[in-house]
Amino acid sequence: MQAARLLLVITCLIGLVGAGMAREADGAVRTLPHPKGKVLFGVTDTGETEDFKDFGRAVGKRPAVIQTFHPWGNTLTKAMPRWRALKARPMLHITTKADDGTELITPLQIANGRGDDYLLRLNRVLARNTLLTYIRPMGEPNRCLNYYAGVDCGGNVRGGHYSFDYYRSAFRRIAIITRGGARRKAINRRLRAIGLPKIQKVGRTKRVPKILPAAPVSIVWSPLPAGSPITRSNWPSSYWPGGRWVDWVGTDFYSRYTNWKHLEDFHRKWAVGKKRPMALTEWGVWGADAPTFVRRLFGFVTKRNRVKMMVYYQDFGSSNEFRIQNFPLSRRILKNWLSTGDFPRYAPGFPRKGQKPFYPGLIPR
Prior knowledge:
Blueprint: H1 2-19, E1 22-23, E2 30-31, E3 40-44, H2 49-59, E4 65-71, H3 79-86, E5 89-95, H4 107-111, H5 116-128, E6 133-137, H6 164-179, E7 182-183, H7 184-193, E8 211-212, E9 217-221, E10 248-254, H8 260-272, E11 278-284, H9 291-302, E12 307-312, H10 328-338
Parallel strand pairs: 3-4, 3-12, 4-5, 5-6, 6-9, 9-10, 10-11, 11-12
Antiparallel strand pairs: 1-2, 7-8
Helix pairs in contact: 5-6, 9-10
């Protein structure tokens, strides 16, 4: 018994001290190290390191954050070496849609533990590799085209597997298990306290570990500012899982859809109101050069001290509608802003190429 307790203490200390996380009492905000007064600038991942480097050269600043989009259950074996090679702090967006369009899992199934094998493996991989990572589960839940959306494109509440309650419960389960940092029994108590079943043996999980290590993760909740479609039932508040399970609030904002009032309202209610750091988890110039948009967006970011991260969305290929290299006026404005001292080239504790990766078994697709 004493040996088990000692192992638990050591495991938690390694997760806390090694990651350099600010961690309060259970359920409180957990933030990764962040340069004081600075904004972390990032870009989305195409799967190719050269695209990341080309983007950095085009805007005159290497991004400090890289956001990788993965379907539920996807392995990290290719992403981790890329993150290390680029020395960029990862943000992992988790969706429920496979590359071929198949729905892999529903919010109800996640809430009930059908995906626990994936969450357990994420917890172990990120903890054992000391990878300081933002986890962004099921972003844009109020965008009707997403599989896990609670409202369809006609403005109708979907219900069933996609009810708001199941989305919130799924989000909470993801946060509890990926964070870890306690005995299995304690994790199960946290789940039962919010009406969810204990950790399930599913997939390739033969047994649930007795201790879930403390993973250096920060959980990002990121709906659209007002929803698509914009209906009262599709506002962000329908999807809010509760402050105990959200470390960052985030939203997406593009030049094609610029309702600045909605963005300001989101910042006031969710960043200021909930006392959370805010990220623009996706932003970009879409379809046509928009220097005024870029200038105004950076003015918004730099005048609000709770906005601490912004990630540019670059799509695939040289002719896509978001490629900043295709918009010379916007690129010039972006480059000028990034040349100031507000945007560091590295995030504290960025992954390093020399670190030896540890994979506790492959995460099944």
